[in-house]
């Protein structure tokens, strides 16, 4: 295998766009763009917080009160960006402009009643239950006639704007299909028509043949930093079988997926021994009644940090031009994640303290 190039353009097959890998600039002098290091954030937090909207039995902004829940807890968002009460009568815009009612459902899913844990710290059985909850939410919301897409995502960490550390994800069930999903669906369909193959399978195949960016693999699930990563430590987690959505994945495959997901999350947290911030999104087929045999359900992680205190700012190339410039090499970032332990540092600390 050749030494990885540090300066080249790489084609992102799922988005059909170029990513500029400019890792040779990594060590250039850096000014600004640093943030405070939240070392061990979460460690000092109590497991119940009186004024947390997500803790069991607490009142939320709407006045509704959370159940005394013990496992996973889902409820409709009190500040929905899409909702059943969105105005239906809209002022018609001028000329070429278009609008439409922002109907749909926005939900919050709490992973645990414990305020001070992260997804990475949950037991494997808890992560399995969460994946089943995602499946049930996708199926329930997706079956509504007005819902054409269900986006399940987690924003984790201050740097992606999350002020409440209580472990939770969000669901937007919308009347439109989100842009990235729409593009992946269209591109996968065309790839199938052209080659007879599943695009995401071809990506998995190339990742396994190369091998340098694989993070975890078991019988039916896999995780890797993709060749065309746009963010440092960007990671995909997926079943190896092609299923348009989580609803079609078998029980044993869900268990395998939970194990790989857990391993990736623990590696993330162990990297800098701090809760690792990310945006996680489940990419699944639209729920508009169509069939999507070429769509391969997967989970994408987009971490905003390049180092514990260094934020990847989206600027000229990304916001101005729409293509990513990555200052890091996917092979090097994958190697860093491969090098850390698969035992969470907080658990390892507890085990040591207990003399085991
Ligand atoms: Zn809480
Ligand atoms: Zn995707």
Condensed summary:
By secondary structure, the protein is of the alpha+beta class.
Keywords, separated by commas or semicolons:
single chain; 356 residues; alpha+beta; 9-stranded antiparallel β-sheet; 3-stranded mixed β-sheet; 14 strands; 27% helix; binds zinc ion
Explain this structure.
This protein is α+β, with helices and mostly antiparallel strands and 356 residues long. It is 27% helix and 20% strand. It has helices spanning 124-142, 179-195, 199-210, 251-272, 316-321, 330-339, 345-353; strands at residues 7-12, 17-22, 73-76, 104-110, 149-156, 168-174, 214-217, 221-224, 235-239, 278-283, 298-302, 305-307, 310-311, 324-326. It has a 9-stranded antiparallel sheet with strand order 3-4-6-5-10-11-9-8-7, with helices on both faces. Strands 1-2-14 form a 3-stranded mixed sheet, with no helix packed on it. Strands 12-13 form a two-stranded antiparallel ribbon. A hairpin with a 2-residue loop joins strand 12 (305-307) and strand 13. Helix 1 packs across helix 4 (251-272). It is globular. The mean pLDDT is 92. The site of one zinc ion has 5 residues, from strand 11.
Q: What order do the helices and strands come in, and which of them pair?
A:
Layout: E1 7-12, E2 17-22, E3 73-76, E4 104-110, H1 124-142, E5 149-156, E6 168-174, H2 179-195, H3 199-210, E7 214-217, E8 221-224, E9 235-239, H4 251-272, E10 278-283, E11 298-302, E12 305-307, E13 310-311, H5 316-321, E14 324-326, H6 330-339, H7 345-353
Parallel strand pairs: 2-14
Antiparallel strand pairs: 1-2, 3-4, 4-6, 5-6, 5-10, 7-8, 8-9, 9-11, 10-11, 12-13
Helix pairs in contact: 1-4
The structure holds zinc ion (2 copies).
One zinc ion binds at residues 49, 52, 54-55, 115, 166.
